[in-house]
Amino acid sequence: MNFKLLLPSLLLLVFTPAFAGTLSDATGLVNRFDIETDGYVFEIITTSNFDVQEIEFDKEQKQISLHLVSSLENNLGEIIIPRNLLSGNFTFYLNDQDFYPKIKTSERIAFITLNFTGSGKNTLDVIATNYLEGVDKLNGTENDGNVTGEENSSLEGGGCLIATATFDSELAPQVQQLRELRDHKLLQTKHGSDFMKAFNNFYYSFSPQVADMERENPLFKEAVKIGITPLLLSLSLMNNVNMDSENEVLGIGASIILLNVGMYFAAPALIVARFSKR
What we know:
By secondary structure, the protein is α+β, with helices and mostly antiparallel strands. It has one domain (3-266). It has nine helices and 13 strands. The protein has helices at residues 3-19, 135-139, 150-156, 161-167, 173-184, 190-203, 207-216, 218-236, 246-276, and strands spanning 29-37, 40-48, 51-58, 63-70, 74-82, 86-87, 91-94, 97-99, 102-105, 109-117, 120-127, 130-131, 146-147. Strand 9 (102-105) and strand 10 (109-117) form a beta hairpin. Helix 1 (3-19) runs parallel beside helix 9.
C-alpha cells in the first residue's frame, strides 16, 4: 500500500461530500517568485484565492511589494518568505494603510496569513528590519546562492485554514492537534515528510475557498464541522502512539486510512443496504 498516495486520495474523498460541489479552478492559486539579490536567488511562495500578478523587491528598503487582483470580496492568502532574505520585525501596509496579518516564524521561514476584504486591485507592502541575515550560515557557502522556499513550505506546513475557520481560532484544540501531528509526528520521518509535500499541494488547491465559504455561511460551517469531526477523532489516535520509524508510520497510517474508509464509506453503505432490503 502506497501511504504517500493513498492518504491524500482518502482525504479528497472524505472532504468532497461535505463540500457538496466542485470548487473553482481559481481556488488556492499557488505562485512562486524568484527574488535575485546580491548574488543570491530566493523563492517566495504565495497561496491564495486571489491572483498575485507581480512581486517587487527593494533591498534598500528591505521591502517586498505584492500586486494583487481579486474577483472576490473576502480574500484569503498565505505568503512564505525565507528568513535569510528578510527577517526581524515585519511591518505591513495594504493599499498604504496599516495592515496586521498573522505571522509565524521558524528558523528558516516567515509564514504570513492574509485575510482582507475588497475586490479589484490591491497592493501589499511587507517591510522587514533585517536583510540577508545569516544567509552564509544557512546556505553553507556564498557561491551557492540558490535558496528556495519549496522544501520549507512543504515541510514546515501552512495554516490549517479549514479547521481554523471551522473552530474559529488557530488556538482551538482541534487545530493545535493537527499542527502537533504534523510537526511532531509526520515530519520526523521521511515517509511522513513525503506525505506532507503531496498533501500540501492537494490541500491548498481548495482550502482557501472552503474557509471563505465557511465564514460566509454558518450552516455550511456546521456541515463541515460534522463532516470532519470523525476524521479528527481518528487522527487524534496518531498523537497517542509512537511513530519513531518508517515502518510505524506506514503501518499506523494504513490503519487510520482503513478506519476512515470504514467510518465514511463502509458503515454508511451497510446502513443503506440494510434499509433498502426493508
